[in-house]
Write a structure and sequence with these properties.
Number of strands: 0
Largest sheet: none
Strand content: under 5%
Distance between the termini: 39 Å
Number of domains: 1
Helix content: over 70%
Structural class: mainly alpha
Shape: globular
Radius of gyration: 21 Å
Length: 412
């Protein structure tokens, strides 16, 4: 049975790397779900054991944050931000800076996948209407979403996982990550501006009628509610109340609306991402248990493979984030390493997120941008992304490693 479990585990993570099953229209979420069902079908685990592998507080926190992000959506904030950015298309350097700053800041407080999902088609439409080439700005959107989301423990799915499963402090991590995230945003701007120098110029076209409307929101009341909800969350994160309880409480208040149907907010939740998490929790938890559970970390340490030093963690984060993806990689590491030091977890959150910029397959945010852009008639190719993503990642990675080494969070 152990051999079968490990075969399913390996096949699942190969699927995470390739993103599909050849000949079938099955994505990463489908692969994880099918693998979890297969483990149940062969009775490698019971349904109760499968439920025990799923980290419910993490799922609750992610769901609650998606409801808060959906509140910004119904207020028209994503549309307003995209229109305002596109209105600066006649000043390309300013436009590039606006995309990076806006995406970076929003991704720090709203999950980056949600930000790029909402903004990509709007940005494509606005830029195409103004005669601008959307590709460098889409790369900037993805790169800054990843870099900005590294700032907090609610900025992306892997950081949410790390914060919830290890107890890493929200504000403590923010103090560690903020300088590196700012540097990574500046690096993204510099690299993209250099690579597309002289080619960001926009033809002198008349302004598109829909671009001229640059209001930040379309519904003031819903915008105020969204801002109050975000402020309440940040205040609650300073208290001993568990983060998932705080987030669900705020989400519950938002759902109790007289004007917005709760199904509209619930419908905006990324259920595919939640199912992906659940499936990977089950598959990885089953495999780790089959390999010896709590003894696995001790065996990795004796072999010198435990990522508790920078020279192990940095290349590991860079490699696995761009093969199986940073979310599956973090789930795997946390399942195999039940009691990691907080310094290593802060470094893992920062490095696994920045590593996602290397290749288009390195993070869910990159994949969302590419797929949403394709649907809007804009092709963002693997090589074109890598041309900017590789230098952005290597430079920001160097800054992060030097910063972490200087802070002494974990041995070199």
């Amino acid at each position: 049975m152990t051999d079968v479990v490990l075969a399913i585990f390996v096949a699942t993570y190969i699927g995470m790397a390739t993103g599909r099953i050849p000949g079938l229209k099955v994505d990463r979420t489908g692969i994880a779900l099918i693998a979890a069902v297969a483990l149940l079908a062969i009775e490698a685990i019971t349904p109760i054991e499968a439920a025990g592998f799923i980290d419910l507080p993490t799922m609750m926190l992610l769901f609650g944050l998606m409801i808060v992000a959906a509140q910004f959506g119904v207020a028209g904030v994503f549309d307003g931000v995209a229109r305002r950015i596109a209105a600066t298309a006649d000043r390309p350097n300013r436009l590039l800076a606006a995309v990076i700053a806006t995406s970076g800041v929003m991704s720090a407080w709203l999950t980056n996948d949600i930000v790029v999902f909402a903004m990509t088609p709007l940005l494509c439409a606005g830029l195409k209407a103004r005669g601008a080439n959307p590709v460098p700005y889409l790369i900037a959107l993805a790169a800054s979403a990843n870099a900005g989301s590294a700032t907090t423990l609610i900025g992306n799915p892997q950081n949410i996982l790390i914060g919830q499963m290890t107890g890493l402090g929200f504000w403590h991590y923010l103090a560690i990550a903020l300088p590196v995230a700012i540097a990574a945003l500046l690096i993204a701007y510099g690299v993209i501006a250099w690579l597309w120098r002289g080619r960001l110029t926009v033809p002198n076209l008349p302004q598109h009628p829909h671009v001229g409307t640059t209001a930040l929101y379309s519904d003031r009341l819903q915008f105020v509610k969204a801002m109050i909800a975000t402020a309440a969350l940040l205040i609650l994160f300073m208290t001993p109340v568990p983060r998932e309880v705080s987030t669900l409480a705020v989400a519950g208040i938002l759902l109790a609306s007289r004007r917005i149907a709760s199904r509209r907010l619930v419908g905006a939740v990324d259920w595919n991402l939640l199912i992906l998490f659940a499936g990977l929790f089950v598959v990885t938890g089953t495999a780790v248990a089959a390999l010896g559970g709590s003894d696995l970390a001790a065996r990795l340490a004796s072999a010198g493979w435990l990522p508790d030093r920078l020279h192990v963690l940095a290349p590991l984060a860079l490699t696995v984030s761009n093969t199986i993806g940073n979310v599956p990689a973090v789930i795997l590491i946390l399942q195999a390493w039940p009691s990691p030091p907080m310094g290593a977890m802060a470094a893992l959150a920062l490095l696994s997120t920045l590593a996602g910029n290397l290749l288009i397959t390195g993070s869910l945010a990159n994949i969302i941008v590419a797929e949403r852009a394709q649907a809007a008639g804009v092709h963002l190719g693997f090589a074109e992304h890598a041309r900017a993503g590789i230098p952005i990642t290597l430079l920001s990675f160097a800054v992060a490693v030097i910063w972490l080494w200087g802070l002494g969070l974990l041995p070199p």
